[in-house]
Amino acid sequence: MALLEVRDLDVRFALRQGEVRALRNINFTLDRGERLGLVGESGAGKSVAAFSLLNLIAKPGYIAGGSIRFDGQELIGLGERRLRRIRGNRVSMIFQDPMMTLNPVLTIGEQMVECLKAHRRIASREARAIALHKLQQVQIPSPETRLDQYPHELSGGMRQRVIIAIALLLDPDIIIADEPTTALDVTIQAEIMTLLLELCEKHNVGLILITHDLGVVSQVTQRMLVMYAGRVIEAGPTREIINDPQHPYTQGLMNALPQMATPGSHLNQIRGSMPPLSQLPSGCAFHPRCDFVTRADGSERPACSRQVPDFVASGNCRVACHMVAEMLAQEAATEEDRP
Q: What crossing angle do the helices spanning 124-137 and 108-119 adopt, rounded to 10°?
């Protein structure tokens, strides 16, 4: 049985102008120690999916349907007291901006001790010793000194290491990292991701990494989900998707990487922009931006603009695309015709 199992997750926001579906039929699993990446443009629904796992969706958002099972226990509908035993304890979260996460008027040590005492009956001296050990694990220099410093006295990279140390305080089974290196420069980003990977492997901690950086995903995760307009459109082993993306949107993301452009030329980009969730087009949400709506012979795929594509199996991956489904059907027909 998977440690985390999400089935048909549906999240909506009740707005004055009408209800908006932020997530549609999200399905995935996470085994103990496994590393999963959630990839997509801003607004694709990555962070909403992560917040939903711990029921951190703020009103007017709410979980409209589906199932989230952690270690066999259903989390949707679970009372706040029972959910608190899991949130921050067995499932920890690393947010984008450490300065928004850390309390500016408390020292690092006070915040870490407070976190431990919120979940365990523990003496202050013992809690401080655990906090010191966790700072040592994330390779912060002079950890004894850092415990008595305030967040503003630390660099951005140091603050993010502190956040990771806090996430590890209670020895969680899963860490959800929401764009953990957004505000850091490239060299510090690499250090933080290497550290996070080493800690997860050493302690057999599952990782859900939310990012738009395909380079980071390829180095850190084992499986990935590509999201677009609140829906998963491609899922499978990271190496297979990176080496041979099937969905046109995934192909566009890969081609947009700087190293994919010819030196001296403009960077590749996907034309247009993601539609607002309140104004999704009919059929495949990506079809207004897709270069493959029209076939090579000039004819159009009417299903692209009329019907939401179902998932089809392509190798070890699942892809929601009418073009891929059509190609697979043609290949199957060709195989049947062979003597």
A: 110
Q: Indicate the Cα dihedral angle 52, 58, 62, 63, nearest 10°.
A: 10
Look up residue 123 and give its DSSP letter. -
Query: In this predicted structure, what is the pLDDT of residue 152?
Result: 93
Distance between CA 320 and CA 104 in Å, rounded? 45
Q: What is the 3-state secondary structure (H, E, C) of 23-53?
A: EEEEEEEECCCCEEEEECCCCCCHHHHHHHH
Q: What is the distance, to the nearest Å, from the Cα of residue 123 to the centroid of all Cα atoms in its chain?
A: 35
Q: How many CB atoms lie within 10 A of CB 81?
A: 7
Burial of 288 (0-12, 13-18, 19+ CB in 10 A): middle
CA distances from 87 to 2, 118, 137, 143, 266 (A): 18, 11, 22, 26, 45
* Short-list 322, 302, 326, CA closest to 310: 322
Nearest C-alpha neighbor of 219 from the set 190, 181, 178, 260: 190
Beta strand pairing status for 317-320 and 311-314? antiparallel
Cα separation, 305 vs 285, in Å, equals 8
pLDDT in tens, 33-74: 999 999 999 889 999 999 999 888 988 999 999 999 999 999
**Spans in the chain with pLDDT lower than 50:** none
88-106: b (≥16 Cβ within 10 Å) or e? bbbbbbbbbebeebbeeee
Which residues make beta-bridge pairs with 207? Answer: 35, 175
The helix-helix angle for 156-168 and 124-137 (nearest 10°) equals: 120
Please state the length of the chain. 339
- The structure tokens 């049985």 sit at 1
**Is 85 buried (19+), middle (13-18) or exposed (0-12) by CB count in 10 A?**
exposed
